[in-house]
Each structure stands twice: as structure tokens, then as C-alpha cells.
Specification:
NAD+ binding; prephenate dehydrogenase (NADP+) activity; 3 domains; Rossmann fold; 6-phosphogluconate dehydrogenase C-terminal fold; Alpha-Beta Plaits; 4-stranded antiparallel beta sheet; 370 residues; alpha/beta
């Protein structure tokens, strides 16, 4: 039996300014709940595309939105917030920019009354932008940071919380300073590191690139992001990003010094092995803190199933996992270079791993490492 569709908390109308990836995804999700979404964008073609995808409608005379969501690049976020506050005096205005302190301070310097403004940021996105990449489930299960202050009325806060909840997100309250320092560590620095690492591939020999596996793909996945957007984000959050990068630079220097001390016979000075081992172990400890599925801290184990590169093979594997009663917590796919086979790395809870292996082998599946 299909679960009945949940009605939206927001009554609408909701005005979305900016019809790119985030704006169009918000529109798609709200429209799916029956909310009246008004779209606006400085680019007529971007607006037309988002409307064609079903993310909302054009503005009309007499529109009275209860909530305005500004979804534009950081460089123009503050001016558009000011414009929307003035144009819609009965509406609460929020934004989804990935930096929160700079627009807030810019609006304060302009003398804007911020009673009806609440900064927010959904921790969700994709490497590619535009309405063509929009998805109604983009925010599902992801944190949505809300930055209120002492002047924020409860009813206004409630509208932004309702927006996050209607989109399937988990609202979290933080100050703008807490937010910007947090995203510097978990979002902005990873972008810089991924881009710098991926740049090493430009002049790499073809034979080296041909060996690329899931490790380099995982660590460079976000390197295809938009440079112009990231220039704005990094400029707006430069201080916290620099702090993390300086710490990272010191750690890299330590590893470089340790590796440099190893001579051609593989002999190392005292403490070298420990320095390298400590660096890797610290990474183990850090990654163990990352929340798993649905934000749980529970650890999973993996089993790797060899899957023939033929139509329907992966679908059959997933179907049979369901038939044997194994819940797949996560899935990663990797292809073997030059071979017609792939590897499905499946994360499961520890107590079902051996049963899953036994049942899959009995059904004819090959498990890597056995």
C-alpha cells in the first residue's frame, strides 16, 4: 500500500528568487506538496526552464507571498534580501547562501530592519548547477541551518522551519559565526583540497590516469564545481577557510618531512614511522566521527560483490538483497579497468554481514576476497 502524501506545513504562496539548482529544487519539492510557488530570476531563459520543469509559476499582480527564499550567488545575496524585504512588507525573507555572516553584516551596515529576515543554509547540493540538475528530493535527510537572532519573532522562525521540514530536511539553529566556521571545515576546505588534488591529473601521464580507481574518484568528485561560484564563497568566508588550510598545511609539512627523511634503502630517522602512522591514524579517528545513514553514529561494515557488466545485473543483486532480508545502508560502485565486471561495495550492519555473504554465495554471487 502506498503511503499517503503528507500535506505541506507551509500554506504559501512562497516566492523563490533565483531559479538555479537550489531555487528550482525548492520549487519542485514545494509544488509536489501543492504549495503555490512564485519563481523569479534575472535570466529569462533560466526562469523559463525552471517553469517548464514544474518548479513554479511566474509572478502576477497581487501576489502576496508569506515567505521569500533568495537563492542567488553570495555576491548579490544581501542586495536582493534588501530588495525583497522592501517589496514584500508582510513576508518573511530567508536565503540559502553558503555563507551567513557576510550578508548579515552587509545588511546591518545598510541599516536594513532585519526583523523579518532569517538567514538559512541547506547543506545539500550537486556538482552541476541549473534547473536542469534540480531534484525535489535534493534536501531530503540533510541538515538545514537556521541563523536567528534575539530580534527574530517566533512566528517568523516557524515559517523557515516549516520550509526545511516540508523539504525533508532537519532544521538546526546556529549563529552566523558558528555556521561559517563549520562549513569552512566540512565544505569549503574539502572543495579547495579536491580541486588542488584533481589539478595534479592535468599533466599526469595517460598510463597513470588509466589506473584511477574509486579512491581518487571519491577524493576529487566535487572538483568539477563552478569556479566563479566558489570564488565568491571562498572570498566571503576567507578567514575561517584560511585557519583550516594553515592547520592542514602544517600537517602536510610534517608528513613531507617524515617521508623526506627516508633514504634510498628505505631506512628512516627515529620517529619517522610514527609520524606517518599518527597522520593516518588521526584520519581514522576523524572519519569515525562522521555521521552515517540518517545521521546515525552507528558503524557499518562492507562486503564487495562482483557484478557482471550486463543489463539488469545490478538490479538483480539489489532485488536479491531484499529477498534475503538484508538492509543496504550504503552502496558504492566501481568498475575494473579493462574488464567486463564491476564491484558493488555494500555497507551493512555488522551482525548481518556473514549471513548476507552466505546467502549471496548460495545464489551464485561472487564475493571479492573469498
Amino acid at each position: 500500500m502506498n503511503e499517503p502524501e503528507r500535506s505541506a506545513r507551509l500554506a504559501g504562496p512562497v516566492r523563490v528568487v533565483g531559479a538555479g539548482l537550489l531555487g528550482a529544487s525548492i520549487g519542485l519539492a514545494l509544488c509536489a506538496h501543492g504549495v503555490d510557488v512564485i519563481l523569479d530570476d534575472a535570466s529569462p531563459s533560466a526562469l523559463d526552464l525552471a517553469i517548464d520543469y514544474g518548479a513554479g509559476r511566474r509572478a502576477a499582480v497581487g501576489d502576496a507571498p508569506v515567505l521569500v527564499v533568495v537563492c542567488v550567488p553570495p555576491d548579490v545575496t544581501a542586495p536582493l534580501i534588501e530588495r525583497e524585504l522592501a517589496a514584500h512588507p508582510d513576508a518573511v525573507v530567508t536565503d540559502v547562501a553558503s555563507v551567513k555572516l557576510e550578508p548579515f553584516l552587509a545588511l546591518q551596515r545598510r541599516g536594513v530592519d532585519l526583523t523579518r529576515y532569517i538567514g538559512s543554509h541547506p547543506l545539500s547540493g550537486r556538482e552541476r548547477g541549473g534547473a536542469i540538475s534540480a531534484r525535489a528530493d535534493l534536501f531530503y535527510g540533510r541538515p538545514w541551518v537556521i541563523c536567528r537572532d534575539a530580534e527574530t519573532p517566533g512566528w517568523a522562525l516557524g515559517l523557515v522551519e516549516d520550509l526545511a521540514l516540508d523539504l525533508g530536511s532537519t532544521p538546526l539553529e546556529m549563529t552566523p559565526e558558528e555556521h561559517d566556521r563549520s562549513v569552512a571545515l566540512v565544505s569549503h576546505v574539502p572543495q579547495v583540497v579536491a580541486s588542488l588534488l584533481a589539478a595534479r591529473l592535468i599533466d599526469a601521464p595517460e598510463i597513470a590516469v588509466a589506473l584511477a580507481g574509486q579512491g581518487v574518484r571519491d577524493t576529487t568528485r566535487i572538483a568539477s564545481s563552478d569556479p566563479s561560484l566558489w570564488l565568491q564563497i571562498l572570498r566571503a568566508n576567507a578567514e575561517p577557510v584560511v585557519e583550516v588550510l594553515r592547520d592542514l598545511s602544517r600537517d602536510l609539512d610534517t608528513v613531507v618531512a617524515a617521508l623526506t627523511s627516508i633514504n634510498s634503502e628505505g631506512e628512516a630517522t627515529p620517529g619517522t614511522r610514527r609520524a606517518i602512522a599518527d597522520a593516518i591514524a588521526a584520519g581514522n579517528a576523524g572519519v569515525a566521527r562522521l555521521p552515517g545513514k540518517h545521521g546515525q553514529n552507528r558503524r557499518f561494515v562492507t562486503l564487495t560483490v562482483m557484478v557482471d557488466d550486463t543489463p539488469g545485473a545490478l538490479g538483480r543483486l539489489l532485488t536479491e538483497l531484499g529477498e534475503i532480508g538484508v538492509n543496504m545502508e550504503d552502496l558504492r560502485l566501481e568498475h575494473s579497468p579493462g574488464a567486463q565486471i564491476g564491484f558493488a561495495e555494500i555497507a551493512v550492519v555488522p551482525e548481518v554481514k556473514q549471513r548476507a555473504i552466505d546467502d549471496l554465495v548460495a545464489r551464485g554471487w561472487r564475493i571479492a576476497g573469498l
